[in-house]
Specification:
four-stranded parallel sheet; Rossmann fold; 4 strands; 3 helices; alpha/beta; globular; 129 residues; 29% helix
């Protein structure tokens, strides 16, 4: 893994449709674990989902200042790894390193957000092992 002494930190991009839940939580986890990270969406919403902010805060990670970003506003060439959250993202100009196939908790109960948050944590931790 990148990030050792004298090495560049791994840069990771997380993409989904709305960029309000899963990709935002992934960005928060990655940053909290020492990676450089950003998230974006093909059709971003207005703000990060309240439940996503709340369940991440339960883990001591503040994503309340993150904002949905349109994928066209991101320099995808500057990232080492790019992941789709599993929401049927269609980006013909982007080669994904993996699709995490995560259910979309948007509009659901907090427990569903917690389940997805924990799956994302596991996936992000595997990147640094």
């Amino acid at each position: 893994m990148k990030g050792g002494i004298g090495e560049d930190v791994m840069r990771v991009l997380f993409i989904c449709v709305g960029n309000t839940c899963r990709s935002q939580m992934a960005e928060g986890w990655a940053k909290s674990l020492g990676l450089e990270a950003q998230s974006a969406g093909t059709h971003p919403g207005q703000s990060v989902a309240k439940n996503a902010i709340e369940v991440m805060a339960e883990k001591g990670i503040d994503i309340s200042n993150q904002v949905p970003t349109k994928i066209k506003d991101v320099d995808i060439e500057s990232f080492d790894l790019i992941f789709s959250m599993g929401c049927g993202v269609s980006c013909p100009d982007i080669k994904f390193d993996d699709d995490w196939s995560l259910d979309d908790p948007y509009g659901g109960i907090s427990e569903k957000y917690r389940e997805i948050r924990d799956e994302i944590e596991s996936n992000v931790r595997q990147l640094i092992e």
